[in-house]
Design a protein that fits this description.
1 helix; 4-stranded mixed beta sheet
């Protein structure tokens, strides 16, 4: 091996070892979520550390309907794919469904059957 190639080989090996031992891994980001109102439903996954794309799914509790995403995400579909390129806080908003919205009637004393 020539004397010129030896420093290049040494430098390449040194860089390789530095990358291995310094943990050259992809950056991860923190996901935090919340639900409004708090009894309106759930989001899965609800929190954690992620890299790349993450799909969130909002599921409404009984008598609630999913209404949309807010804070670091927007949209009206209950399934949402986000790119974790920074820490994110995402809120799922739900609406209480009243019996009248469902097309039913309320049974109250003296009102209806």
């Amino acid at each position: 091996m020539s004397k010129r190639k030896l420093p290049l080989l040494f430098l390449s090996t040194l860089i390789f070892l530095i990358l291995i031992f310094t943990g050259c891994s992809p950056k991860t980001y923190q996901l935090s979520t919340s639900v409004e109102p708090s009894c309106g439903g759930v989001i899965l996954p609800s929190q954690g550390t992620f890299q790349g794309d993450v799909t969130l799914v909002a599921t409404a509790a009984p008598n609630y309907a999913f209404n949309g995403w807010s804070d670091d995400a927007y949209g009206n579909s209950n399934a949402l794919t986000i790119r974790m390129d920074s820490d994110k806080n995402i809120v799922a908003k739900f609406t209480l469904i009243t019996p009248l919205m469902l097309g039913g009637t309320q049974n109250r004393p003296g009102k209806g059957t």
